[in-house]
Structures are given as C-alpha cells and as structure tokens.
Design goal:
It is built from 26 helices and eight strands. It is of the alpha/beta class. A five-stranded parallel beta sheet has the order 2-3-4-1-5, with helices on one face. The radius of gyration is 36 Å and the shape is elongated.
Length: about 550
Amino acid sequence: MSYLVLARKYRPQNFSAVIGQESVTKILLNSIRRRKVAHAILLAGPRGVGKTSIARIFAKALNCAQPNNAEPCLKCQNCVEISENRSLAVLEIDGASHNSVDDIRQLTESFKTLPAPGYKEKVYIIDEVHMLSVQAFNALLKSLEEPPPNTILILATTDPQKIPETVLSRCQRHDLRALTTIEIISQLKQIVFSEGVKCEDEALAMIARVADGSLRDAESLLDRVIGYADGELKAELVAEALGIVGAEAVRAISRAVIAGDDISLLQTLDSLWSAGTDEIYFLKELARFWHELVLAKSLPADSRILGEIGSENVDSLRDLAKDLSLPETNRLFAALLDGGDMAIRSSNIRYAIEAFLLRITLARRSDLLLVDKDLSDKQVNNPQPLNFERLSEKKTAQIERAANANLKPVDLTPAKNSPLFNWAYFVAGIFASADKSLLPFMKECLKHVLVEDQAERGLKIKGPKQVIEYLKRGDIKEQLLALLVASDPSRRWSLSFEVGSVAGTINDLEAKQVELAMQSKKKELESDPAIKSLKEIFPGSEIVFE
C-alpha cells in the first residue's frame, strides 16, 4: 500500500476544516445557502493556503446529496467521488501545462454538455490560471461572461497581477491570506498527536517559520523531519534536518551584538556556516528575533501580540534586552535590517553578513553607534539634576590650561537672578559628568555652536552644517533634551536648529585661551637664559609649539 503524505492525508474536506480563511469560506457558504452562487470565482493567494482545497470543497457542497447547512456531508456518492478525484462533474486542470488557446477551446466545448447523472452543477477548476497565454485568456472571456447553465468556473492563482483586467472584471474575487505561525503550529500539533509522534514545541515552531505562511509546506517539512528522526522531534534535530539556524544560535548572535563581544559573534557564525546553515534563512530568523525583541520591549504584558509570542519567550527577550533602552533596541534592529539588505545584494553573502554584524558589534562595544546605553527610559522620565558641583573638583581641560597660564577662565557660573539658560555652564557640567553614555563627539559638538535662549520657545542652536545635522539626529536630540531636563526639571524644554557660521562659541573662547596661554609660555621661554644662548647660536630661530 502506497504511503499517503501528510499534506494529502490531512487536507481539509469541508469548510469548517479550512484554517485561517474564514472570510472566504463564510461568503461561499452563504452564497450556497441563499442560492446566489457566482458563475465565475477567482481564488487568489500565496502557495499552500487552501485555494484548490476550497475549490474542491465548494464543488462538493454544490453537488452534495445530503448537505448539512450547505456543508458537504462527505458520505454521499457525489462527495466521495469528488474527494477521490474521480467525479465526471468536476474537472481540474493545470494552467501551467494547459495554457494554449487550443486547450481552452477544448475546455469551452465541454461546457455545452450536461452535468453527470446525479450532479447539479459542473465545476471546472483551473489552477495557476495566470500561466495561460494571452490568446487562451481571450478564448475564455466569452465563457466567463456568459457560461452555460449549471456550469461553475473556479480560477486559482498565486499571482493575480498577471491576469488581464478583462478576466478579473468577470470573476467574483476572493483573496486568501498567508497563515500565521500560531495557526500553523496549532495544525501541526494536531497532526503529530494523530500520528503518535513526540515533538518539542520549539521544533514545530521552527517548521512553521520555515513554511512562511504555507500550511502545505509546513506539512511537507514535518513529513521530511519525521522521516529523518529516530525518536522525539527536537529543535536541534529539525535544524539539522532542514539545514536552518536554531533559536539558541540566533539568541547567541544577538547576545554577542548587545554585549559587543566580537569573539563570541565570530565563533557562533563559524559554527553556523560549518553546519551548512542557509544564509537567507539566517537573516530572516535574525530579523524575526529582533522584531519580537522590540515588541517585547514596547508592548504591555497583556498585549495580544505578545500573547502570540508566548509569555516564556517574552520574559526571555526582556531579560536579554534589560540593559537596552527602547530607542537603542529599535536602532539596533534597524541597523541589522539595513545590514541584511546589503548582504543579500552582495556577491558573497556570507562574508557580508559577518562584516555588518562585526561592524555593529564593535560599534556597540566602543559606544560609537548608540549613545543612550546607560540613559534608560526611567531616567528620561524621572530625571535627576546634573551634579554641577563637580566643576570645583574636576575642571575641564580649557579651564586648567587657562589657570596654568595665569589667565582668567571662562565664567561658567549662572548669572544671578537671570531667567535665561547659561549654555557654557551646562556644557561644562556635561564635561565634568562621569556619565559614560555621553559620546565624546557629542560633547565636542556642543562647543561649536551658539545657543540663544528664546524662553518659552526653547533653545535655538546655530552652528556648522555637519554639527547641526548630528545634533538633530533622533537619538542625539533625545539625549540632549534629557540632559536639559535633568539640569532644570522645572522647565519645559524644546530645541530648534539653524545652520550658519558662528563666532564666539565655547570652542572659540577655548582656542583664544590656548592662544593666550601659548603666547605667555613663549614669552616665559624667551626670557630663559638657556633659550637666549641658543638664539645667539642660531640667529633668526623661532620657538614653535607642536
């Protein structure tokens, strides 16, 4: 006895057994109950979601001798013959192999015959109808518009865009959707239970994700994995059988990226390539993992979306990203997506994957990609005042140089009784802060701008184009606002930016102080007896500072 594959064995036989297409099956059922059945129906949707299965069920429901509220009984002779594909009243053809005008003319000639004895309707199912030639479509137009009595045409396609508008306008169209991972897992659980196969939930989840919305693909993969296994289906075995990356490997990669651990990253990638992991599938799994990570970081615990991910997985994701803020998590997610897109277009996708993951990991380690590692959402929402008293203990470099040259340092104390904000005092406080989340480049940018306090309208920051573009960046602006709030929580802060040449910035004052300090030091050296002796030996020589 020949083996019946799972995709055929568990094919739905009535509308109630169809998974995930309730919007379509309900319309078809109601059309039968109300006796308002369209003569031409188009079923469009991705592969393996039930197009031809629904077409066969519809044919059974139309011809069932003992229907149950429009559902086929599956017991009468008509239902049995249609299920076994030996009914003379239901003809199913493949549009890919019968796509010529002669094939369609032969088909339309058969429309003139009456239904087989005992049947009410003749049903013609053309699968992959978009493969028909232009001439074949033209030959079908008249029959689509005015078919003979008791004749129903059902067209099925995965690519409705390739069907001429003249054909689409003559059909009642129904769009089937791709199934969710949860729906596919639920069906696979029923199958393995019926087959008496022990299986881990994660193993079924991996199969469902590889199937990418197609139940038929998932059932075929399950068939393959069952044949590969000797006992219980485990996640590791599924990954080995299908040549895909397991959840733990994706988690290890993500953990290495977050920790800035380039060694662990490269070792894990090497293990994946050695196991023959498909690069495209790896990128999909990495994107899916980080998508769930962002959702776990963003949504409340009672969210329906998180319910689909699973409470245990959500807790694990949140634990992994506990040291990341939401903006930082989202930016890492975007960086991984951009890197994956570039890798797919690369001539060597494996090396491209390693390159962009290593770049993000090293940037993460050196705090050059993201700035708010330690600036959590809690700190932003509940800011603590900056410790400006550090200025008396930890002076900035320009103040020290000015003091050593016996020059008066920049006045960083707030003006007494002044409602306006002292930018120099604020920047000096940032430089004196021990907060490691502040990038040196950000600190330096703040010294190259002029700031006008417009009171209720907030601060207007003006400076060179490159500096302004950097400060306007979402993550940088967000942190700058958080620091302003921390410096004065009683004020409502806002920022505006303007590109332009400026003079008199903190950097200009610092440069002036350094210049004065160098001139003072030069005069001091020139008065030194040893220097005077050298100048006598080398007339015309100058003291140069490097």
